Amino acid sequence: MTLHPCILLADNWAFLYAQRLALKQRLPLHVCFCLVPKFLDATIRHFGFMLRGLEEVAEECRTLDIPFHLLIGYAKDTLPPFVAQRGIGGVVTDFSPLRLPMKWIQEVLEQLPSDVPFAQVDAHNIVPCWVASDKQEYGARTIRRKIHDQLAEFLTEFPPVIKHPFPVGLQEEPISWDACYSSLQVDCSVKEVDWAKPGAASGLKVLEEFVKERLKHFASGRNNPNQAALSNLSPWFRFGQVAVQRAILEVYKHRTRYKESVEGFIEEAVVRRELADNFCFYNPNYDKIEGAYDWAKTTLKIHAKDKRPHLYTLKQLEEGKTHDPLWNAAQLQMVQDGKMHGFLRMYWAKKILEWTRSPEEALQFSIYLNDRYELDGRDPNGYVGCMWSICGIHDQGWAERAVFGKIRYMNYAGCKRKFDVGQFERKYGAHSFTQ
Ligand SMILES: Cc1cc2nc3c(=O)[nH]c(=O)nc-3n(C[C@H](O)[C@H](O)[C@H](O)COP(=O)(O)OP(=O)(O)OC[C@H]3O[C@@H](n4cnc5c(N)ncnc54)[C@H](O)[C@@H]3O)c2cc1C
């Protein structure tokens, strides 16, 4: 399998739809990206990954005779004037269920001339979020069937993208990437990482290696942080540099040989991922305790005053200075590599519930750390991951215990039974700190 990097635009349903509209109307096509100066807790680690990926997009657009514009500022301020000045006939955009991007869309809609049609395409889910379900789903078991039933319709090959036959005519100004970097108001102390090279070309290489080397171990090894079994694709998925649909099409080719692994990967990348979007789309409190189920809110409230075995400040947590070397190693992995192993993310967030003053504080700290350090952070999967760990979203009640109430518990001894905890701790040079 060799995947061509040109796949980035070709694998984007919003782009494909926009080109189809332009071809039908025999009009030029423009691609715009509105670069905001800051976004939630994103740092240069995230903006650097995104901008370098965009440089690749701009280059690809050039070869397709499609001008790429980087509009510096909020979409509400930059896009409507662009549309008016250029006499643009219609706008097509992508979709995110998160509150801030939803607000951006609303603001643009209010400013666009009324005769300019505006379309939104869910380009990152296979079954579009609003088609998969029209309500908040209780859990994986209630959405799984709905998604699988619609895969035959949506899990198709992407149609080809073509060199655009209706050029703009004008010579476009080259993009000043330096000006883009200097427009940012982000924290530069969280460094970019070496292992994850931004852009579709690198992301597709990671997909290729995953299919060749790690997919066979996915079913048996994905809960072992010492084993190379995961796809590692979340940063490229997060920034739209590799389409989940492309990954599924490639992985699916191996369904006979690695049945369990292929099914496991589809469960994570399609069912769990779309469930996360479903939660954020239909639940306005997707990152707050109020967004939890009643049973979870009740049990957390009953246990709010339980004595915590340890209490840590945000600084102690951020520096990985707890008594628990495994937790510290997981935190260091996230800080240094920008990607904590999936199994450890659950343990990590549950311990934050156990070691902070309240579930509200636990949720706040975990989301802050996740969004600041994980390359794939500020994503529905992250909010749902923290909500699952701390307030039982998409889970069920378990045996009642201190602090957690009926929220599922995880502990060090359980991790020791699953994998060589010492090996992982040594890899990150983590040890135990006393308070
Ligand atoms: C506390 C906590 C925080 C998390 N934060 C994030 C985050 O910020 N961003 C993020 O993308 N994922 C997050 N996850 C989900 C999951 O841990 C990561 O998606 C996964 O570890 C990414 O690594 P990978 O691509 O190698 O995963 P793989 O196991 O190879 O999975 C492939 C893809 O499936 C999806 N996926 C896997 N596990 C889940 C899951 N549990 N829920 C939803 N989708 C899933 C992701 O898109 C992932 O890239 C979080 C989970 C928890 C418990």
Automatic annotation (TrEMBL):
Superkingdom of this entry's organism?
A: Eukaryota
Q: What is its EC number?
A: 4.1.99.3
Gene3D superfamilies for the chain: 1.25.40.80, DNA Cyclobutane Dipyrimidine Photolyase, subunit A, domain 3, HUPs
What range(s) does the Photolyase/cryptochrome alpha/beta domain occupy? 1-129
Q: Name the chain's protein.
A: Deoxyribodipyrimidine photo-lyase
A single Gene Ontology molecular function, please? DNA binding
- Read off the Pfam families from this record: DNA_photolyase
Query: Which top EC class applies here?
Result: lyase
Instruction: Kindly give the NCBIfam families that the UniProt entry links to this protein.
Output: phr2
What is the source species? Python bivittatus
Please list the reactions this protein catalyses: cyclobutadipyrimidine (in DNA) = 2 pyrimidine residues (in DNA)
Instruction: State which residue ranges cross the membrane.
Output: none
Q: Which GO terms describe its biological process?
A: photoreactive repair; UV protection
Q: Which UniProt keywords apply?
A: Chromophore, DNA damage, DNA repair, DNA-binding, FAD, Flavoprotein, Lyase
